[in-house]
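Forum: Protein Structure Q&A
Topic: Joint prediction for protein chains with partners

I've read a bunch of threads here and the consensus seems to be that you should model interacting components together rather than docking separate models afterwards. I'd like to see that in practice. Below is the full input, 306 residues plus whatever partners are listed. Could one of the regulars post the assembled result?
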Amino acid sequence: MPTATIATQDLANADEDLNNFIGYNLKRVYSLLNADLIRVLAEFGLRAVTFSTLSVVVARPGLNQTQLASILVIERSNLVQIIDDLATRKLIERAPVAGDRRRHALLPTSEGQALLSRAQKVVVDHEERMFASLHAEERATLLNLLQKIRSID
Amino acid sequence: MPTATIATQDLANADEDLNNFIGYNLKRVYSLLNADLIRVLAEFGLRAVTFSTLSVVVARPGLNQTQLASILVIERSNLVQIIDDLATRKLIERAPVAGDRRRHALLPTSEGQALLSRAQKVVVDHEERMFASLHAEERATLLNLLQKIRSID
DNA sequence: TATTGTTATACTCTATAACTATA
DNA sequence: TATAGTTATAGAGTATAACAATA
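Posted by a regular:
Agreed with the consensus. Here's the joint model:
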């Protein structure tokens, strides 16, 4: 065996320095979650961002695109195709706003609300699976810690 | 004021449904962290993935690209340009492996080790800043919870 | 036949600049 | 002049297929 190779067992902890960083672990977890979320949302023809957008439109009907972009922290320009996607599928609609013809009030259709309801259940199941190694209190702690970090923003 | 508009104060919690999902909070935190990490690593001409790669090469000199790709969970094909980048800058080198001319043993240069040392300090500072709202025990808890979630993989 | 590194390519996500219509 | 929505575009990040060299 050549001297420059390394034993298989040593590979397990080869990223041990990185594992001390919260950010590295967070990215790895995010990648795992995201891959599974993409998979489960595909059933509904949704991506993570169209799911999020539909959620906010259902929760706050009447928002315009600038407000929505601000809430979800995405560029207005990138929101256009997201809204197009949802509107083409009749899940939301762009309604005219009285008094300002520049704006569109975004409203969910009943189909949009129904699809969101079904998708939410599947996302809850997805999280149940992904966080199976944590008990309820640990999940609550994790949620709380993440929200605390977000509070710096 | 048109009926379809919404009061400013209602915008604050417009993503309240999403905020019940750990995944949504995790993505938002990841985005915050990543933006700051990109900023601080730019000083060293590093990206997150070149920093990670350099870390593993320094920790485990002699790995080949297939092993490294497996450790970092990135495609071998995408690793090529990452290694090219680090090698061009003389931070690592591709050394021949005795007995297998297909493989390269990846070795850090002393410049690579020195740059990594300096970059690690800056990444520690970056995490210190980003997690300022958490005390030491909370940070340890967060790290532990994230590693538990990764254990399903 | 299988593996290693590589190239080419495509798709998603994200960021920026500039346009139009309206205010 | 400023704002809302839009278009175009470019840069990352990521995934897949196929190839040459070597095992």
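Confidence is low (pLDDT under 50) at residues 1-6 of chain B.
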